[in-house]
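Please decode residue identities from the backbone states below.
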């Protein structure tokens, strides 16, 4: 019996077998993992990579900055993360902001490696792809929530 609380759940392992001592206790039954769980793992793993300034597109980051200013409210780990979870596989889409001066292709490769390793280790799901969209480059002198101003006259 599987119960959910609004989250889509997928079966990630099954343990159909004979009753009694013929099968290991750890394989009797099913484990389900919600899409949101995989999204949180992906978000945390992406943020761990040096060179990632933030996750999310421009609008998502702006809305996140507004929500973060509310006392007691924590930033969303899943901002900028979309996942598709099947019975044995998952796919991840990430929107990221990379620190200026770093190789975007190297940072993206590091993100892919860390996200894949984290999801596969923690869930047992095979990650078939991690698509990364670099939406911005964070400049050292940019303040959070401030859009860069461009003009010829000041």
């Amino acid at each position: 019996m599987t119960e959910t609380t609004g989250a889509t759940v997928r079966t990630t392992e099954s343990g159909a077998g004979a009753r009694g001592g013929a099968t290991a206790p750890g394989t009797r039954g099913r484990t389900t993992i919600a899409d949101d769980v995989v999204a949180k793992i992906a978000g945390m793993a992406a943020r761990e990579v040096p060179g990632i300034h933030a996750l999310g597109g421009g609008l998502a980051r702006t809305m996140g900055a507004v929500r973060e200013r509310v006392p007691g409210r924590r930033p969303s780990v899943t901002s900028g993360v979309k996942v598709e979870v099947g019975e044995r596989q998952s796919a991840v889409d990430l929107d990221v902001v990379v620190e200026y001066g770093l190789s975007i292709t190297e940072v993206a490769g590091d993100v892919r490696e860390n996200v894949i390793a984290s999801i596969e280790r923690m869930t047992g799901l095979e990650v078939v792809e991690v698509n990364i969209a670099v939406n911005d480059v964070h400049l050292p002198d940019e303040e959070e929530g401030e859009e860069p101003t461009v003009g010829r006259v000041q």
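Observation: The beta strands are 9-13, 31-34, 52-55, 81-85, 89-99, 126-138.
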